[in-house]
User: Fold this.
Amino acid sequence: MTRRPSAGGIAMFTGLSTAMFGALVAWTVSAQQPAPAQPQADVVSIGGSVTEIIVALGQQHRLIARDATSTYPPDVQSLPDVGYMRALSPEGVLSVGPALILSTEGAGPPEALDVIRAADVTYVEIPEAYSAEGILHKIAVVGDALGVPDRADGLASEVGAKLAAAQAQADVAPEQRKRVLFVLSTQDGKINASGRGTAADAMIRMAGGVNAVTEFDGYRQLTDEAVGLAAPDVILMMNRSGDHAAENEALFAMPAIRLTPAAETRSVVRMDGLLMLGFGPRTADAVIALQQALYGQSG
Assistant:
């Protein structure tokens, strides 16, 4: 006996077939649609930490040029260089045809920025602050400027957690903290060192050290007597060549340094300048590296 399908069965089969056909059509149409095009390269980045944030946000493809301080990651160095961030020329910056300029606070000179801001280009200044909160704010500002606030939220969460862990590791008892003198340069036998309110000052404190010089803000040349009174346990420098990084023998032979505790123990720490002073996404790594250089692995 031949059994005919019930009306309900026919309806169920018909509905299922319709759904499958609709899904197949939707998949076919979707497969034929081209992937959304990525925004074209249209951004000039001024400031090493700003460039690092752009890359960390997955937006490196947006970069058409960068400034001389933007050296990390290494492959950004293949981009056109528009000059040193504090000695920019409007012609150099605008010649690459940017639609957006992301610049760290402190770029200049002011007259060059006036010309750049007057051009038909969006100019966003990224505020500088030498703290964990300042880094997270920079990430948020860059993310908003690039139109990727959700990615910025994720990166800020990741960086914030690393910074909290790094500072917890660098929590040294006050009586054990070493006095650290950051020497920017030794040009003409003069010690140019960091006082308060600098990136070096903040990094020393974040790594559990004490800035040996607190009598002034910013950077200043010190007399031999002032270096002696600072009595640093450790000399901290950038690992650059030339006047910014005198060799150990020459450094400890300087009259200003020769009688310090640092000279007695030959204690000098050299770090990559952008890593140490950039206050970008890698700052937690800098804190840990300096803390370990000052106190060893135990923290």
